[in-house]
Amino acid sequence: MKKNISIVIPSYNEASNIDKLLASLNETITALPYSFKIIFVDDGSKDETVSKLKEIASQQDNVYYVELSRNFGHQNALKAGIDLAKSNSDAIISMDGDLQHPPQLIPELIAKWEEGYDVVYTIREEDASLSYFKNKSSKMFYGLMNQLSEVKFEPGTADFRLIDQKVAEIFSDFTENELFIRGLINWVGFNQYAINYKPHARFSGESKYTLTKMIRFAIQGITSFSTRPLYLAIFLGMGLSAFAILFFLVYVFYSLYFGHVISGWASVITTIVFFGGLNLIVLGIIGMYIGKLFMQSKGRPNYLIKNSNYK
Ligand code: UDP
Ligand code: MG
């Protein structure tokens, strides 16, 4: 019997990419001796994505669509797909819907899985087709992540990977609300293998990760895997208090021996503003973690499915 492999593709306003992606996928997978299911997860798209998906699902019987009730974000859409597919897939491949993740890599992912790896992930090489900003910001982010977190992250990893069924089962049981899947998959361990690839430019449409979304995603990643920013807050506080005491002593000494020193407005204001700012930053850091607790404590599901032809 052929092994079952599911390909999960979160799609948000990707109507103009679907045909091309499916054609490219079909070209690669029909030659392979596996039984494939292609699962598109529509993440509350506002364009023709859903009607497009229904159309192709009616034409090709290994294509399925899952319609979420609204936009839940890329990570949650991906989890929806994995949750559905895990019970009847020996392995699950996840990839983006914009052809940035080349389907031509799929045979290699599968080959490594057959060699016994449980997670085969991909590393995007720095590439001219991606913006300078995307290349650099991604590098900086992973550098920061590695400084702050106990789990090590490799620059250039995205959600283009194959996971074995047992990893999918474990991942599915995670009840974290703010998902940072590449971190979680790294965290679970097992036998992992990395493949390098050159990303393509987005085929059509625009990136859904705006700058603010990217920063939020980065903060989510850091706070999901580390409490080190809290220590940073404490050390900063301790360091500054020590400095303030020292400063005070110097000042007392100075006025005892040299008489009254004229104190300027500017320095006072600067100090107030500086420490005010620091207070806000530290409060913000603490607040972020409390916010996470608050969100998690409600125990809401990560996504809701409105409609699907998956079976
Ligand atoms: N995506 C999604 N929900 C969202 C945003 C994005 O399902 O709210 C999907 C999108 O359709 C694509 C993948 O996630 O398949 C990656 O998004 P995008 O290509 O915009 O990100 P980038 O490649 O620029 O990081
Ligand atoms: Mg993309």
Structural notes for this entry:
It is found in: Membrane. Its main location: membrane. Pfam families: Glycos_transf_2. It comes from Flavobacterium nakdongensis. By secondary structure, this protein is of the alpha/beta class. The protein folds into two domains: 4-206 and 301-308, Spore Coat Polysaccharide Biosynthesis Protein SpsA, Chain A (Alpha-Beta Complex); 228-297. It is built from ten helices and eight strands. It has an eight-stranded mixed β-sheet with strand order 7-5-6-4-1-2-3-8, sandwiched between helices. Helix 1 links the parallel strand 1 and strand 2 (35-42). The model has no long low-confidence stretch (mean pLDDT 86). Magnesium ion (MG) binds at residues 96, 98, 100, 202, 207. Residues 96, 98, 100, 202, 207 line the site of magnesium ion.
| N-to-C span | 19 Å
Q: Can you tell me the CATH architecture of the largest domain?
A: Alpha-Beta Complex
Helix proportion: 40-55%
Structural class call reads alpha/beta
- How much beta, percentage-wise? 15-25%
Count of discrete structural domains: 2
Which segments are poorly predicted (pLDDT under 50) over 5 or more consecutive residues?
none
